[in-house]
Amino acid sequence: MPKGSPELTNARKEEIINACEQLYKTLSFKEITLKEISEKTSFTRTSIYNYFQTKEEIFLALLQREYELWNAELNRIMRKFPALTKDEFADKLARSLEKRAQLLKIMSMNHYDMETGSRPERLAEFKVAYGNSLRAVMNCLEQYFPEMPAEDKQGFLYTFFPFMFGIYPYTFVTEKQRTAMETAGVNYAFMSIYEITFNCVKRLLGEYNV
Q1: What is the distance of C-alpha 76 from the center of its chain?
Q2: Of 160, 151, 168, which Cα lies nearest the Cα of 111?
Q3: Distance set, CA 12 to CA 18, 33, 67 (Å)
Q4: How large a percentage of the chain has pLDDT more than 90?
Q5: CATH 3.30.360.10 fits 57-205, yes or no
Q6: For the segment 94-142, what is each residue's pLDDT rounded down to a tens digit?
Q7: For residue 28, which phi and psi values (nearest 5 degrees)?
Q8: Triad 104, 107, 108: Cα angle to 5°
Q9: C-alpha separations of 190 from 39, 95, 167, 169 in Å
Q10: Is the torsion defined by CA of 83, 85, 89, 92 positive or negative?
Q11: Second label for 5, Cα 20 to 30 Å away, from 36, 108, 181, 201?
């Protein structure tokens, strides 16, 4: 790590992550290189290695930031709404993910590559943000559905978080994919991030706080 203030280090990291995020809007994970990321920053490619050793570490940091933003939104919901019905909670949770399409996109496409291509210390930093998201959703369940047994709350987490990996592929379909499904005779019913999440959460909550 280069010498400098923590503020400068964090600013440099954010600049690199922002550059990666910008490229990811038009390019795929495989197409993006460290060289292209460096060209979107104010410093050289060599300097990037002072902060991230691989492209995967940069993407993992971007995913970590997305989790942190989602966690902040969940905590804001709990502070603002002391009590919610099942439908109201499903609505709030669905809208929180509707704002985080970037989170869902990275999760669904590149999660394994990012984790295997990152150093243990970078992976541990990411897991803190991921763990906080698990706790945030659990805190929501405890606040809004206190009558729900602990094993059902745990079951909600173990179902909902794997479900999140499939949200993006089901809600963002390219024209090529649409054409292929039509050719194969597959009926595709479009659902938005909000719709698919809202329906899933309501089903998972079952009879609680109807």
Answers
A1: 17
A2: 168
A3: 10, 18, 20
A4: 79
A5: no
A6: 999 999 999 999 999 878 889 999 999 999 999 999 999 999 999 999 9
A7: -85, 170
A8: 85
A9: 37, 17, 12, 11
A10: negative
A11: 36
Q: How confident is the model at residue 2 (pLDDT cuts 50, 70, 90)?
A: low
Over residues 153-181, the mean pLDDT reads: 93
Amino acid at 30: K
Q: Choose which CATH entry (1.10.10, 2.60.120, 1.25.40, 3.40.1350) describes domain 1-51.
A: 1.10.10
Helix %, strand %, coil % of the chain (to 5): 75, 0, 25
Contact 74, 140 (CB under 8 A): yes
Single-letter code of the amino acid located at 162? P
Q: How confident is the model at residue 210 (pLDDT cuts 50, 70, 90)?
A: low
pLDDT surpassing 70 at residue 4:
no
C-alpha distances (whole Å) from 9 to each of 12, 15, 49, 93 are 5, 10, 12, 34
How does the average pLDDT of the chain come out, rounded? 93
Q: How far apart (Å, rounded) are the C-alpha atoms in residues 8 and 14?
A: 10
- The whole model's pTM is what? 0.91
Structure tokens at 192: 């938005």
